[in-house]
Amino acid sequence: MSIASLLFVTLGCAKNEVDTDKMRARLLREGFEECFDPQDADACIVNTCAFLTSATSESIETILELAELKNERSGTQPIIVCGCVPSRYGNDLMTELPEVAAFVPVEDEQHIVEIVRDALGMGERIRSMSSDIMRTIEGASAYVKISDGCDRFCTFCAIPYIRGRYASRPAGELIEEVRALMSGGVREIVLIGQDTGVWGSDLGDDSNLAGLLRSVAEVVRPYGGWIRVLYLQPEGMTDELIRVMRDIPEVLPYIDIPIQHCCPSILHRMGREGSRETLAALFDHLREEIPGMVLRTTGLVGFPGETEAEFEELLDFVAEQEFDYVSVFGYSREEGTRAAEFADQLDESTILDRTQRLLDVTEQMGFAATASHVGETVEVIIDGIEESESGMELIGHAWFQAPDCDGAVHIEAGEASVGDIVTCKLVDSFCYELVGEPVDAYKGEGTLS
Length: 449
Hints:
alpha/beta, pyruvate-formate lyase- activating enzyme, 3 domains, six-stranded parallel β-sheet, five-stranded parallel β-sheet, globular
């Protein structure tokens, strides 16, 4: 068989993007090629999401759509389904989706080379794969997954059943990956995991996230790089971690803490801790210790038994805290979770209504928070170049914008390449987007964040 072309399709969150990238790296190193048109693919690799029922449905629809396409040279191509759907549903999929050549749960993705070769009817590998860390990142930002799984077992969440118990990746392995990414042109490292704040707690030594950040900062410092941390639970915000985020310049003062709710009764039923008072105290402490920080959170509405008064309390709390960014989710009844068995489920119309009402509040706050940066002079990492009505436009993000989710900075003038860091004055905003102009067009110097 000639060199085989592979199509990679990734559904779901950034953690899935990292998993796909590692599988891609293994396969490209083995001699496979990547293609971007399904009709050119000799095999399709679909990395699925099953966090919500809607995500599972999207994954299945994508698989069925690919099954209808044919490679122009070889006819029907094998479809290999990886990730959360096989991990969650297991052997049931074989009869439900006969179109699929192989199902690869998360724990078997390291064997993707052998699985793809087998699906394509190829012989034994000519050479063994190197164990060296390899990624295929070409952009300015790279996600680095520092852990997998979760030990929290929130009653609404299926992640522990899909991904297993919490498992930290060793610090040495992470540092080598960061070093390779930075030397390859990356300028921002985004650390992710189901629960980043407790990284190291299962390693049997004194490892913790604060120490890891210090080590990563030493690697990115010579490159002028940034470090961003996502998915910190409230309990993970230790005084040591706060000091690191305040005092180490490479670690951005961007704090992402999903609260889900603020009412103790709802949080207790969710299998979580906290209250309006304890959360407010945490955020007051963070703002006092890290002036000018950006704060992102997540709200979950329509949980079984949530009263109108409890929902109104969440609305009030979110408005009171003036978060910079808020992700809003309506509760989804997920098979296999404890909350799915609760008797007091809310009707879909109530959930949709509350979701929209919270979105209205958070968008108003978010647009105002974005507009508050107008007039600042900031460094912008260029993520891409696009054609606009007025010509070519640079698209990037500033320190207060997480890539892919918080809006962008649009620069209509200037020359730069992806990965460059450009100093801009922010001159206008629209929704979560900002307009920047090269700083050379202005006299004087602004404050670089």
